[in-house]
Design goal:
454 residues, 25 helices
Length: 454
């Protein structure tokens, strides 16, 4: 429907200004009543403004009562039924609302606002055939109603009729995002991918300087696995618009798939530097490149440069991917840095906590391991790993008594994990060794070895 906010403003003006003067022109509200007609005019005016007041304070039942008093005095003004309909809608008395709106339209068939309210009622009740009949009457007032007509045709699965209207609107007013959204919905519902591509190809031919048409066509070609056509279209766009940045979102992947690595890296750098490209799209490209560098580590310098360009703009997933890459390469310090940065953005991700805690321990950063594991225990008291890492750190920091307490508590949470259980026993053996309790130390060592030998 058209902008209902505008209607409300105009509608209020109409009620306050038009009704007393035009719709009820035979009544002079400024005239001093001196006969029965004057008394009737007075009563009408009083009841009508009482109705508006009650509606304004959302007392819709009282508003209806006042409007019905007006109808008793004079049934002719269409606005009375219009206002009744709106009140009935608020009271969810939908049958009465429809009757009131229809009465208003019958008394003023050329009133756009009344027709629009009736149309809105039919849409709200999903009475599509009646809505269709009403919106066809509204089309003559404003072309926006044609979009409503197209939307109704889609709801009624009359797709050819909807496309015909969309084509007409595009020809008259140019392309619009809203209409394209509706058009794509039709193509998806009908499986007319070929028609969709033909439409976009025609747009490109008609307006070759429009970047958006090319980008939409590239996307649709890719969606239909016509990658060669998509690549050709992307290269054509770059020739026409050599400064295009958005096209590199597609070119980057095409170049990678065709082993044109240098060209892919150049496109990636355009993407990550661009102000026209959204952060989530940049991060997708960077994440792809991380996976590429895992297989081709000689391009790590380019990964570092791309990461630097996006410094402060990366998301937890991309940072975690970078951490995983550097861990795979054996660069534990770098891996820890990226996992910690990812944890700042997503501290509810236990997998990130696992990476951070184990890397602190592996790098012998025991004070940090102790502090981080204590934080993890507060968040995850039923997870055994933070207990284990805390015990490792406490042993390394020569506080074995505390280590025993923590490790014993953590053992209660180890379920069906022989490796984890053996690690707990190893650390308990180490703690009791530090406490000079050789018997218990040997007992836990034996338990650990028994589990490891299984």
């Amino acid at each position: 429907m058209k902008n209902r906010g505008i209607y409300i403003v105009i509608g209020m003006f109409m009620v306050l200004a038009v009704v007393p003067i035009q719709a009820y022109a035979q009544v002079d509200f400024n005239k001093t009543p001196d006969d029965d007609l004057g008394i009737a005019e007075d009563k009408f005016q009083e009841a009508f403004f009482e109705a508006l007041k009650q509606k304004g304070i959302e007392n819709y039942e009282r508003s209806v009562e006042a409007l019905l008093k007006c109808v008793e005095i004079d049934k002719k003004p269409a606005v009375l039924y219009f206002e009744l309909g709106k009140n009935y809608m608020q009271l969810k008395n939908f049958g009465a609302a429809e009757d009131a709106f229809k009465e208003a339209v019958s008394k003023a068939p050329d009133n756009e606002w009344y027709l629009d309210e009736l149309y809105g009622y039919y849409v709200s009740q999903n009475e599509l055939n009646k809505a269709l009949k009403t919106v066809k009457q509204l089309v003559k007032y404003h072309p926006d109603y044609k979009e409503d007509l197209a939307t109704l045709y889609v709801k009624m699965e009359k797709y050819d009729a909807a496309l015909e209207i969309l084509d007409d609107l595009d020809a008259s007013f140019g392309i619009s995002v809203a209409r394209d959204r509706l058009r794509n919905k039709i193509y998806k519902a009908t499986g007319r991918a070929h028609d969709q591509i033909k439409n976009l190809e025609a747009r490109v031919d008609k307006n070759p300087k429009n970047e958006a048409n090319y980008l939409a066509l590239i996307y649709r070609y890719s969606e239909q696995n016509k990658t060669d056509k998509a690549f050709e279209t992307a290269e054509e766009l770059l020739k026409i618009h050599p400064n295009s940045q958005l096209v590199h979102l597609a070119l980057y992947k095409f170049y990678l798939d065709r082993n044109k690595t240098d060209a892919a890296i150049a496109s990636m750098k355009v993407v990550v530097k661009s102000d026209a490209i959204k952060p989530d799209a940049k991060l997708k490209v960077l994440s792809d490149f991380v996976n590429f560098v895992k297989q081709h580590p000689n391009y790590e310098a380019d990964l570092v440069e791309a990461t630097t360009l996006l410094d402060g703009k990366t998301d937890a997933k991309t940072l975690a991917d970078l951490g995983a890459y550097y861990k795979q390469q054996g660069a534990k310090d770098k891996a820890l840095h990226y996992f910690e940065e990812a944890l700042k953005d997503d501290d509810a991700n236990f997998a990130l906590w696992t990476q951070v805690l184990t890397l602190h321990a592996e790098l012998k950063q025991f004070e940090k391991a102790k502090q981080k594991s204590e934080l993890a225990l507060q968040k995850y008291p039923a997870q055994p790993l933070p207990y284990l890492i805390n015990g490792v750190a406490l042993n390394a920091l020569k506080t074995p008594k505390l280590a025993v307490e923590v490790l014993q508590s953590g053992l209660d949470w180890v379920l069906d994990d022989a490796t984890m259980e053996a690690n707990f026993y190893t650390q308990l053996a180490k703690a009791y060794t530090l406490l000079d309790n050789t018997d218990k130390a040997k007992s836990f060592t034996d338990k650990a070895n028994a589990l490891k030998s299984k």
